[in-house]
Structures are given as structure tokens and as C-alpha cells.
């Protein structure tokens, strides 16, 4: 029996966004590209890593306390493209416009869990596929998003990741509703 859990905090995707993102995939279905199952798609807020299972309730309580203090917001989809480095991409991602509320949420969750920020300005994205490690990534298109594709962020969730082949298995352990109920569009 495992005595640890591999955890992360993320936002689950609404069904309509998932349905739209699926429409971009045919352009990326090529040898050496491993499409991630839709049920694994999420917007990562903070990767926690392996922790003793005895610490899971404490992490859950911290998120439960924090979530009502965070505001709802909307993310605007910019493109689906190779990333994060266009010259040497590792994945295909759905990239969203910079958003101060997203950055604020990432900072708040990271600090509440006693960690440090990896990036000053985190990029909101959903990983849709990964390139095989043993090949040079083929040329892939950047596909602009359909106009006005918005992603309402109204909750965060604590997820557990079990490493399996060919893809990890993700389970949402708990969901936390963010504070205000009426998201305001953000113009950036």
C-alpha cells in the first residue's frame, strides 16, 4: 500500500471548452505526438508532488480556507501550438491570454501551501499532447483560437496523479468553489 500521494492543484475544464479543444487535435495527430486523454486535461495551478498521505487532509483544509478568498475570472484562449519553447517544444498546449486574476490565484495557492513560485508570470495553459522524448519534434502549426473562446474559472480542485503507462491516471480528491459567483470579463 502506498503511503504517499502525488498531488497537484488544478482547474477542471468545462465540457464546452473540452469539446472545442478536441477540434484542434487533428492538426497534431502525427507520429511522435502522444495525445493526452481528454479526462486528463486540466489547467494546472500548482504542482505539489509526492507527500505522505497523512498530509492530504491538511492540504485540503488549506485550500478549503483559501478558495472563498479567491475571485472568479475568465481566461481567453489565444491559440493551440507547440510549447512552451517554440524552437524546442515538449508539448502541444492550449495557451490562454495573460490574466492578473490567474497569476494572483497561482501565487495565493503556491504560498498557502508553503512553496515558492517557479515563474514570475505563470502561463495559463492546458497540455493536450506531448512529443516523444526520443524524436526531434516535427514542424507543427500554431492554430489561432476561435474568436471569443472564454474559460470561466469558478473552482479549483485537489487532484491525485497515479503514474501509469501510457498515461497517468488523475482523480479529483476535492473541489473548492471560488469566492464570488459572477465572473467579470478581464480586458488585457
UniProtKB/TrEMBL annotation:
A motif (HXTX 1) lies at residues 42-45. A motif (HXTX 2) lies at residues 125-128. This is RNA 2',3'-cyclic phosphodiesterase. Belongs to the 2H phosphoesterase superfamily. ThpR family. Gene3D superfamilies: Cyclic phosphodiesterase. The active site is at 42 (proton donor), 125 (proton acceptor). Residues 21-93 form the Phosphoesterase HXTX domain. Hydrolyzes RNA 2',3'-cyclic phosphodiester to an RNA 2'-phosphomonoester. InterPro entries: Cyclic_Pdiesterase (IPR009097), Phosphoesterase_HXTX (IPR014051), RNA_CPDase (IPR004175). The lineage of its organism: Bacteria, Pseudomonadati, Bacteroidota, Cytophagia, Cytophagales. Its EC number is 3.1.4.58.
Amino acid at each position: 500500500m502506498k503511503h504517499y500521494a502525488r498531488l497537484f492543484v488544478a482547474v477542471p475544464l468545462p465540457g464546452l471548452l473540452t469539446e472545442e479543444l478536441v477540434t484542434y487535435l487533428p492538426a497534431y495527430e502525427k507520429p511522435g505526438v502522444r495525445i493526452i486523454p481528454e479526462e486528463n486535461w486540466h489547467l494546472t495551478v500548482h504542482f505539489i508532488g509526492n507527500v505522505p498521505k497523512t498530509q492530504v487532509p491538511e492540504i485540503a483544509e488549506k485550500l478549503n480556507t483559501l478558495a472563498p478568498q479567491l475571485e472568479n475570472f475568465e481566461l481567453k484562449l489565444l491559440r493551440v501550438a507547440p510549447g512552451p519553447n517554440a524552437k524546442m517544444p515538449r508539448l502541444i498546449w492550449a495557451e490562454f491570454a495573460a490574466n492578473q486574476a490567474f497569476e494572483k490565484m497561482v501565487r495565493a495557492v503556491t504560498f498557502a501551501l508553503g512553496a515558492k513560485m517557479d515563474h514570475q508570470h505563470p502561463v495559463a495553459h492546458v497540455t493536450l499532447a506531448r512529443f516523444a522524448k526520443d524524436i526531434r519534434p516535427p514542424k507543427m502549426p500554431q492554430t489561432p483560437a476561435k474568436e471569443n473562446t472564454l474559460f470561466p474559472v469558478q473552482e479549483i480542485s485537489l487532484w491525485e496523479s497515479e503514474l501509469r503507462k501510457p498515461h497517468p491516471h488523475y482523480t479529483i480528491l476535492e473541489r473548492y468553489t471560488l469566492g464570488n459567483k459572477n465572473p467579470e470579463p478581464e480586458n488585457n
